[in-house]
From TrEMBL:
Protein name: Conjugative transposon protein TraN
First and last residue of the signal peptide: 1-21
Domain of life (superkingdom): Bacteria
Pfam families per the UniProt record, alphabetical: DUF4138
Record's keyword terms, sorted: Signal
InterPro entries for this protein: Conjug_transposon_TraN
Length: 282
């Protein structure tokens, strides 16, 4: 009888210990921290975030941040500041795979993160349009090499309002193309740069055919500036993911003046694009 009582006590103790252990185990996994990624956005530039799955919902911590889904796709979120120098806030995105993506959002007009890819080996990358994650230092090195390279391309320019916009260098290294662009201000009025944009467009638009545009976002900008004072010039290098231009289309490089009307545009056809120079490996 004593042996039976001892066995019962052992079983009861085992069950109690097991239940207690399970409760502790559940408690360990009940709460956990979600990694917060830092996101710098600007007033005059748009930040694009590419998610691995469709976006279900977006929550802004403040109305100082503007968000919208990119047209034609459901996994790209476009973000920009509604006002300058806003107070730090946050952004929460839920995707179709049930993942919660949380960002701390700050204002940075000079160095915003323009293109981010979520779900790579690193949670966020500033490379859009390639399966490889480019190192920003490497992009800077090759953009600088393109900046000082002597080889030039000609006859791609726009001149009006005493402003001259010219593409004078085309280079490539592996999967990245480098566009060297010169902006010359021959007027006495400073030119405030709102944005540079790159589009692939149809050469002609008929009344019955809708015009299609494909925007290409820079991976990196070398020697970036916001203003070109009168009687001066600047040279910038834009690193873009490798692409070609289909027949009956062209690459439009658009420069917009901030709070002004002196807008300029370059048109680059595929024939000109094929004149690019291969940069040596550093």
């Amino acid at each position: 009888m004593k042996k039976i009582n001892v066995m019962i006590m052992v079983v009861v103790l085992f069950l109690i210990t097991n239940v207690f252990a399970q409760e502790q185990q559940v408690g360990k996994h009940e709460f956990y921290k979600i990694k917060l990624d830092s996101l710098a956005i600007a007033y005059s530039k748009t930040t694009n975030i590419v998610f691995p799955n469709s976006i279900l919902s977006v929550d802004r911590g403040s109305s100082d941040v503007l968000v919208q889904k990119a047209k034609g796709v459901d996994n790209i979120l476009q973000i920009k500041a509604a006002q300058q120098d806003f107070t730090e806030t946050n952004l929460t995105v839920v995707t179709a795979d049930g993942q919660l993506h949380s960002f701390v959002v700050n204002y940075d007009e000079k160095k915003p993160l323009l293109n981010l890819v979520v779900g790579q080996k690193n949670s966020i990358s500033d490379h859009l349009g390639s399966t490889e994650i480019e190192n920003e230092a490497e992009l800077k090195s090759y953009a600088e090499l393109a900046f000082y390279e002597k080889k030039k391309v000609y006859n791609v320019k726009d001149y009006k309002y005493d402003m001259k916009l010219q593409l004078n260098g085309l280079f490539i290294h592996e999967g990245v193309m480098y566009f060297r662009i010169n902006l010359e201000n021959n007027s006495n009025v400073s030119y405030d740069i709102s944005q540079f944009r790159f589009f692939i467009r149809d050469q002609k638009k008929t009344k019955r055919t809708a015009s299609q545009e494909i925007e290409i976002h820079p991976l990196y900008i070398y020697n970036s500036t916001e203003i070109v004072v009168g009687k001066s010039e600047v040279c910038l290098v834009f690193a873009l993911p490798k692409f070609t231009i289909p027949d009956k289309k062209y690459l439009a490089i658009q420069l917009m003046e901030d709070q002004g009307g002196r807008h300029l545009e370059l048109q680059v056809k595929n024939k000109k694009l094929m004149q690019l120079t291969v940069l040596p490996t550093l």
